[in-house]
Design brief:
The structure holds two protein chains of two kinds. Chain A is α/β, with parallel strands linked by helices. Chain A has two domains: 217 residues, P-loop containing nucleotide triphosphate hydrolases (Rossmann fold), CATH 3.40.50; 56 residues, no CATH class. Chain A is built from nine helices and 13 strands. In chain A, the strands form three sheets. Chain A has a six-stranded mixed beta sheet with strand order 5-6-7-3-8-9, sandwiched between helices. In chain A, strands 11-12-10-13 form a four-stranded antiparallel beta sheet, with helices on one face. In chain A, strands 2-1-4 form a three-stranded antiparallel beta sheet, covered by helices on one side. In chain A, helix 7 packs across helix 9. By secondary structure, chain B is mainly alpha-helical. Chain B has one domain. The radius of gyration of chain B is 20 Å and the shape is globular. Classes of the chains: A alpha/beta, B mainly alpha.
C-alpha cells in the first residue's frame, strides 16, 4: 500500500465536550522526518488532539487525515499498523510479562515476534523481560510502552507526555531513540511540558491554549514571534575608561544588556567595538521562557 | 492470525492465569458433587440413575450460579479496559472495535464453557463411578444440561457486555450487573408467581405465560431443561407445568440464541459510537 498524503493533516478541527471547546479550529500539518512538539497546560487539548488523530474520538467539524485516511473508518483501521502510540498514562496488562506484552502487540500489527528481543534490549529492559509487568517500575513500564510504539517501523509516532516522571537515564535513551527515528523519516508528534529538554530535538513547536493554537513554528520563528529580549554579557580586560551607557554593570569588569531579537545583530556589533573586550556570552530565551511568554500574552 | 483470534487467545490465557477457570471449575464441580450425593440418597430404592436426579437439582442451581459468574466475568470487560487506559492503546492498533468486542466475548465464553464443561463433567463421572454403574442413557440429559448452561452463561455474558459498554464507571457497571442478575434470576419469577396466584388464570392464559417466560433468558433455560427430557420434568415435579408449555425445544433454543445475539449486537453498536 502506498500512502500519498502527508502523515498528519488537520484542517480547522473542532472537538466539543459539552459547552467546552476541547480543540477549537486547529489546523496542523506534519511532514515525514519532522519532530513537532505539542505544548500547553493540562487541559489545553493536547491529548484530545492525539485522540482525534487516532480516531478514538471524532471531531464536530473540520477534517482529519492520517496517512491519507479519515480516522475511524475501516481503511484507517488498516493503516493504523503504521502508527506508534505511547499513551499519557501507560497502561499495560499487569499479568503479562514484558515478552508476552510485546508479542501480543506485535501480533496485532501482523508482525512476527522474532524482532522483539532486539527491541527489548534497545529500550534496555531485556533483563526484566520475563518478569510480570505488574512488578515493573514506572520507568520500566514506560520503556516497554515505548518498545510497543516502535513495533513494525511506524511512519507516525504519537507520544503523549512520554518523559513525565522518568529518570534522567531513561530520558536520554528516549531522546536518542526519538532522534534516530526522526532521522529515518518518521513523523513525530510529541506532547510535553518539558519543553527545554527538547530544544535540540524539535523541528517545530505548537503551543495550545484552551483548545486554540496560539503559536506554531520552528525555534527561530517562535523566537521572533515571542519577541523576548536577548541577553548579551561581556567581560572586559580592565575596568572601562569611559562609562558604557547602554550596559548595566553586574561585576567590576562584567556588563550586561538586553535587546530585542531584531536589534540583536546591531548590539553585537556595538559590543565588538568596545575596547578591551575579552569575552562575550549570548543568551537566547529558551523554549520554556517563550512558552511562558506566549501563554502570558494570551492572558493579558 | 486475525485480531479477533489474538484477542480470544489473550482472554483465555488471562483467565487461566488468574485462576478464574480453576476457581469456577472447582466451585461448579463441588456443588454438583454435593447435590449429586445428597440428592441421590432418597432415590436409592427407586432405582434411578443418580445422574438424572442430579440434572434436576443442578439445573436449579445453575440458574443462579452461571448467570452470576457470567456477570462477574463481563461487567468489567469494556469499561474496565477504558478506565485503566489499555483500551485506548489497543484501539491504536489495526483492530476494529467490533473485533475487540468479538474477541473479548468469545474469549470469555470459552472460559465459561471450559469451566462449566470441566466442573460438571468431572462431577458427573465421579457420581457414576461412586454408584458403580455406567449408564450412557443418563449422559444425554446431562450433556444437554451442560450445553444449556453454557448458552445461559453466554446470554448473561452478552448482557454484561452491554452494561459494560453503556456505563462510564466500573462501580456503576458492577452494581447494574448485580441488579440485572437479581431481577432476571430472582425477582421477576417471584413477581410473576405472585401475579399468577392472584390472577387464578383469568387474564394470564397459558399461551400468554409462555410468551412472558420468553422475555427472560433464565426462564428460557428452565423451560429448555424441563422440556428437554420427560424424565427430568417428572422428577422435577414439574410435569404439570411442562405439559402446559407448548413451545418446542427448537423455539426455546432460538430464543436463547437471540438472548445472546441481541444484547451483544447492541453492546457492539454502543461501543462503536462511544468516545474514549
Amino acid at each position: 500500500m502506498t500512502v500519498t498524503g502527508s502523515p498528519i493533516e488537520l484542517r480547522a478541527v473542532t472537538k466539543r465536550y459539552g459547552a467546552l471547546n476541547a480543540v477549537d479550529q486547529v489546523s496542523l500539518h506534519l511532514d515525514p522526518g519532522e519532530c513537532v512538539i505539542l505544548a500547553g497546560h493540562n487541559g489545553a487539548g493536547k491529548s484530545t488532539l492525539i485522540k482525534l488523530i487516532l480516531g478514538l474520538i471524532r471531531p464536530e467539524s473540520g477534517t482529519v487525515r492520517v496517512l491519507g485516511e479519515t480516522p475511524g473508518t475501516p481503511a484507517a483501521a488498516r493503516s493504523r499498523r503504521h502508527i506508534g502510540y505511547l499513551p499519557e498514562t501507560v497502561a499495560l496488562y499487569p499479568s503479562q510479562t514484558g515478552v508476552e506484552t510485546l508479542a501480543f502487540y506485535a501480533r496485532l500489527k501482523g508482525l512476527s515476534p522474532a524482532g522483539n528481543p532486539a527491541l527489548l534490549s534497545r529500550v534496555g529492559i531485556a533483563d526484566a523481560a520475563r518478569r510480570r509487568v505488574g512488578g515493573y517500575s514506572k520507568g520500566m513500564r514506560q520503556r516497554l510502552a515505548l518498545a510497543q510504539a516502535l513495533l513494525g517501523q511506524p511512519r507516525i509516532l504519537l507520544l503523549d507526555e512520554p518523559t513525565s516522571g522518568l529518570d534522567p537515564a531513561s530520558r536520554l535513551l528516549f531522546y536518542e531513540i526519538v532522534r534516530e527515528l526522526r532521522d529515518q523519516g518518521v513523523a513525530i508528534l510529541l506532547s510535553t511540558h518539558a519543553l527545554a529538554e527538547l530544544e535540540g530535538l524539535a523541528d517545530r513547536a505548537i503551543i495550545l491554549r484552551k483548545g486554540q493554537k496560539i503559536a506554531d513554528g520552528n525555534l527561530s520563528q517562535l523566537r521572533h514571534q515571542a519577541d523576548l529580549p536577548v541577553r548579551i554579557r561581556i567581560t572586559l580586560e580592565a575596568p572601562p575608561a569611559q562609562p558604557l551607557p547602554e550596559w548595566r554593570q553586574i561585576a567590576a569588569q562584567r556588563f550586561e544588556r538586553h535587546c530585542s531579537e531584531r536589534d540583536k545583530l546591531a548590539s553585537l556589533r556595538a559590543a565588538h567595538d568596545i575596547p578591551g573586550i575579552c569575552d562575550l556570552e549570548l543568551d537566547h530565551p529558551g523554549l520554556d521562557e517563550m512558552y511562558a511568554q506566549f501563554l502570558h500574552r494570551e492572558d493579558a | 492470525m486475525s485480531p479477533t483470534l489474538i484477542l480470544i487467545r489473550k482472554e483465555i490465557r488471562d483467565s487461566l492465569r488468574n485462576r478464574w477457570v480453576l476457581a469456577v471449575t472447582l466451585l461448579l464441580a463441588m456443588l454438583a458433587l454435593s447435590l449429586g450425593f445428597l440428592g441421590s440418597a432418597p432415590t436409592g430404592s427407586v432405582k434411578v440413575d443418580p445422574l438424572t436426579v442430579t440434572v434436576v437439582s443442578l439445573s436449579s442451581l445453575s440458574i443462579f450460579l452461571v448467570p452470576l459468574i457470567a456477570m462477574l466475568l463481563s461487567y468489567d470487560a469494556i469499561v474496565g479496559e477504558i478506565d485503566r487506559g489499555t483500551m485506548a492503546l489497543l484501539l491504536s492498533y489495526p483492530v476494529s472495535r467490533h473485533q475487540v468486542m468479538a474477541g473479548k466475548f468469545l474469549g470469555h465464553l470459552a472460559t465459561l464453557s471450559l469451566a462449566t464443561f470441566l466442573g460438571y463433567g468431572v462431577a458427573g463421572v465421579a457420581l457414576q463411578a461412586a454408584h458403580g454403574e455406567f449408564d450412557p442413557a443418563a449422559w444425554g440429559p446431562f450433556g444437554l444440561l451442560i450445553a444449556a448452561s453454557i448458552l445461559l452463561g453466554a446470554s448473561f455474558l452478552a448482557l454484561g457486555y452491554l452494561i459494560s459498554a453503556l456505563v462510564q464507571e466500573r462501580a456503576t457497571a458492577a452494581g447494574l450487573a448485580i441488579g440485572v442478575w437479581l431481577f432476571l434470576v430472582v425477582i421477576q419469577d417471584m413477581v410473576l408467581l405472585g401475579i399468577l396466584v392472584a390472577d387464578q388464570g383469568r387474564l394470564i392464559t397459558d399461551a400468554a405465560l409462555n410468551v412472558i417466560l420468553l422475555f427472560n433468558p433464565a426462564d428460557v433455560y428452565r423451560l429448555l431443561n424441563l422440556t428437554g427430557h420427560e424424565n427430568i420434568a417428572m422428577y422435577a415435579g414439574m410435569a404439570g407445568l411442562s405439559g402446559q408449555v407448548t413451545l418446542s425445544a427448537m423455539t426455546l433454543l432460538l430464543v436463547q440464541l437471540l438472548w445472546i445475539a441481541l444484547p451483544l449486537a447492541l453492546a457492539s453498536w454502543v461501543f462503536n459510537r462511544r468516545a474514549l
